[in-house]
Amino acid sequence: MCKWSVRGRTPSATLRSPPQHFVQSLQGTITHNCTVRPLGITRSTTRSLLIMDSDEPETCKVCLSNYNETVRRPCTLPCGHTICSQCTKDAVQNALLICPSCHTEHSATADAQFPVSYSMVALLRKLKGIRPTSVAPKSVKPQYSSKRKGKMLRSLTEEYRSKIENLVFGCEEALSLMSDYQRQLTYWKSHHQQLEDGLHDLLEQNKAAMKPLEKEVISVANMATEGEEGSERLKAMVVHLETLDTAQEIVSTVDVYDLYYKEIEHWIKKCKERFPDASTVHTSIKVQEIMKEALKMMTIEREKTVISVTLEDPRFNIPGKIQKITEDLFLKMLTVEHLRDLNEPVKSLLEAGRVFAVKELADDTYYARITLKEGRLCLHSLANQPLPAFAATLKHGYVLDLLNHSSTVAFLNLACDGSPIGQVDIRMNHDSGLARQFIFLCTGQQGYTYLNTKLLKIGKYCEGAKCIVGGDYEWNDGSGGNPVLFNLKGEYGKFHNVGDVWALFWPDEDHSSQFCICTNKGRNNESDGIFARVEKGMKVVLAAATYMSLVTVRDCGVVLSQ
Fold first, then answer.
1. Within 12-116, where are the H helices?
2. β-strand 495-496 against 500-503: which pairing, if any?
3. Which of 202, 372, 385, 218 is closest to 298 using CA atoms?
4. Which residues of the chain have pLDDT under 50?
5. What is the DSSP code (8-state) at residue 413?
6. Hey, what's the torsion of the CAs at 490, 491, 494, 500, to 10 degrees?
7. Crossing angle, helix 151-241 and helix 118-128, to 10 degrees?
8. Facing residues of 116 across strands?
9. What is the DSSP string of 218-245?
10. Which residues, at least 6 apart from 153, have a Cβ–Cβ distance to it below 8 Å?
11. SS3 category, 515
12. CB 492, CB 530: distance < 8 Å
């Protein structure tokens, strides 16, 4: 056993010696009093390495002292780990703290940066079996013992003890939520600082781009002045020529003209060679575009924002109110970039079904739901439907920019007599015109869609090939389904495997929007045009084939992100 100290501070408790292999791995020195000072670690975290893997939650990982409710209260770091309040004070003096558990560096400027973890306090009380009940002072003796209390007094005592305990629990719960909120505020503050640093760098780039511009402006102004002076001299010479009478005067004037001619020619040549300065123009345009994009992304509505949640609203706690405020803000500011990032507020809006793509078709407005299913961003078919209250909208064309055209997955949700059967995911062959047409009809981009169409029949072809047939978006009886795109010809296979998707008719014929999904392996010599394959949901296809005449496409669309 030995006592360990950090820069002269010796804890009151006697500590266990660290493992030998750990001491050998430290890149520092061990002094005569066992002070450990590894390189690159602050004095407040040196000893924490000794119990980094400790399973004692009641012990501070820096000073090795047990937490208490006075001097060494458990405080939460921004990274989520805990140290005692005394060590946080040391960190403030050093202006830097390295977490003893995950080694994340935190700037330390004030004690308030490390809020007390009231959840840890409650946990330690539970571990120790301590109830937070009030204790009478030693000098005050109870007038009656518990044995002498009557039934009514005992009941009253139990009632108020229960009320007090519930109140303490509520207080600690509120303090824990406030601690989480304080940690969130600290994160937002650091994020603002990062944004400010980024804006500072952007402003420096802008200033650097302006310097050569200013030089170019001065250079152009000087050259323009020189040219204007030369032009005025030539104009004066033309007037002067009209007044000359003798040959000697004319010869003398011609000599002056030759001199002016050379100067002006040199000036014109210099203008062509010097302007524009390619580097100056390129840098200026590039920085301008970067600044425009930054301002566009960071523009915030200056109008007063109406928040639907008030501080007195009893339905929400602190995290709930923050989430509601954030969602209300994103409803007004949602962009395609937010869909790319998919942060938590956007995910909440998508999961709640409050994000829509909007498009004007035939003097009417159509909306397409955007949802998040199994971590995938999905765009559903456009439909002439009412927009729900408190919905965020984006232009349909902008949302389609998220589509991966080289590997697109479309989906069909099938239902039997109104009851859902399941979803079929179909991966497209992006080089096929039929595949592009299938995507158009799944998204309803031109007003025509597979939505609410029926499965028509079970097709049987030579050599045992069988399939289900659907896709008559016009009449829903097999007599329609004309193409919505042109030039659908291509190289299509004829060997059909289970899950292959092809056109019922030749790509250049009418009704080529009707599709077939192969349900068993075989060869089909009568049809052509395999353009996709079922990637997931073949069991759904087989189930649909059992109830053919009652099956409809209750929903369809494409996967935007995978």
1. 20-25, 85-94
2. unpaired
3. 202
4. 1-54, 131-142, 144-146, 300-307, 309
5. E
6. -70
7. 150
8. 75
9. HHHHHHHHHHHHHHHHHHHHHHHHTT--
10. 144
11. strand
12. yes
Model pLDDT, residue 313: 57
Question: Rounded to an integer, what distance in angstroms lies between the CA atom of residue 352 and that of residue 148?
Answer: 60
pLDDT digits (tens, 9 = 90+) for 78-114: 888 888 888 888 887 777 778 888 888 887 777 777 8
Q: Is 494 exposed, middle or buried (0-12, 13-18, 19+ CB in 10 A)?
A: middle
Number of Cβ within 10 Å of residue 381's Cβ equals 22
User: What is the full DSSP assignment across 90-144?
Assistant: HHHHHTEEE-TTT--EEE---GGGS-B-HHHHHHHHHHHT--------TTPPPSS
pLDDT at 12: 38
Q: Determine the Cα–Cα distance for residues 386 and 395; give it in Å rounded to an integer.
A: 16
Measured distance CA(179)–CA(177) in Å, rounded: 5
What pairing do the DSSP bridges indicate for beta strands 355-361 and 392-395? parallel
Neighbour-count burial for 93-106, b at 16+ CB within 10 Å, e otherwise: eeeebbbbbeeeeb
Neighbours of 288 (CB within 10 A): 12
For residue 464, the model assigns a pLDDT of 66
Chain centre distance of CA 346:
8
The number of beta carbons lying within 10 Å of the beta carbon of residue 110 is: 8
Residues 6+ apart with CB under 8 A from 441: 448, 449, 450, 471, 473, 484, 513, 556
* Kind and range of the H or E run holding 300: none
Q: Please, which residues bridge with residue 59 across strands?
A: 66
Nearest to 396 by CA among 373, 367, 363, 353: 367
Nearest to 46 by CA among 32, 26, 75: 26
* DSSP state letter for 471: -
Cβ contact 35:4 at 8 Å:
yes
**Which has the closest alpha carbon to 469: 535, 549, 558?**
549
Query: Tokens representing 407?
Result: 């590997």
Q: In the numeric block, which tokens belong to residue 477?
A: 């009886």
Q: Which residues of 503-523 are buried (b: 16+ CB within 10 A; e: fewer)?
A: bbbebeeebbbbbbbbbeebe
Q: Examine residue 18 and say whether the peptide bond preceding it is cis (omega within 30 degrees of 0).
A: no
CB 556 within 8 A of CB 380: yes
CA distance 552 to 176: 51
User: What is the value of pTM for the model shown?
Assistant: 0.54
How do beta strands 376-380 and 364-373 pair? Answer: antiparallel
Q: The tokens 């169409």 sit on which residue?
A: 453
Under 8 Å between Cβ of 518 and 498: yes
Contact 180, 321 (CB under 8 A): no
Distance CA 498, CA 539 (A): 11
Q: 114: burial class by Cβ within 10 Å (0-12, 13-18, 19+)? A: buried
